[in-house]
Amino acid sequence: MLRIWQRTEKRNLEPVEMGTAFPFLKEKHHVVSIIGGGGKTTLLYEMAGFGVKNGQKVLVTTSTHIYCPPKKWQDQSLEEIERKFQTGRAAIIGSACRDPEKLSMPERERFEAAREKADLTLIEADGAKHLPCKAPAEHEPAFLTGSDLVVGVTGLLALGQPIGKTCFRAELAAELLGCTMDHCITEEDLVQLIASERGQQKDLDGRTFYAVLHQYEEKEHREAAQKTVELLQRKGIEHVLVTCVAESQMQSNAGKNPWHGRAALPMR
Questions:
Q1: pLDDT in tens, 52-65
Q2: pTM (global) more than 0.85
Q3: Which domain holds residue 222?
Q4: For 204-211, what is the mean pLDDT?
Q5: Which terminus of the chain is less hemmed in, N or C, by CB atoms within 10 Å?
Q6: Residue 132 is part of a domain; what is its CATH number?
């Protein structure tokens, strides 16, 4: 279960429900690209589960790579996809790649046909090799046709850690921040990685953006999270959420493919 907090008018972080935090999940025909640091797949399947429970026809895919779900969840033909939708389950599509544990982007024709049938499309649109933050390469992010919403994920576990050890594409991040590889990441650094057009704002082209500060530990990160949210909102980023996975769920899935144990996802 994903726990979510949002900053109130009193400048406090207060718990909110998924539908309040991400109201687009209850609307029709959005194509959501999820980018940034580690935690994207976790957020993606939590969003998918919420959509399914609320009667949405949910399509899940990637424009880069994503961990393979169990084979019974994967869908190859449009008929299989429609059958999943008709029986109240999420459809997950992709293509085989070199890594047997992952799927790559589906054929464009199959994606377009499936997207037309879906109420909600969720796309993992870049990679970070499980590191909490990153700077995008020239070819990133990979936005597919119709993408109108972008959710940028950043891990608060990066705070206080050397950029060279905790940031994917650390050289690009250090160049963006104007620092060395042994520089320890601050709240201001995370804000720059999120709010810069060389960071998570890259190639937005008018798409609505949501910033998600993941890996929140309330005792450790309360002040840092509040500061980071405030700085992001000062930068004009309206939608900022703070999230973490329930501790029991983290322990039960430690070291596993994040799809494993999620058999409840496709079912209403």
A1: 999 999 999 999 98
A2: yes
A3: 17-248
A4: 97
A5: N
A6: 3.40.50
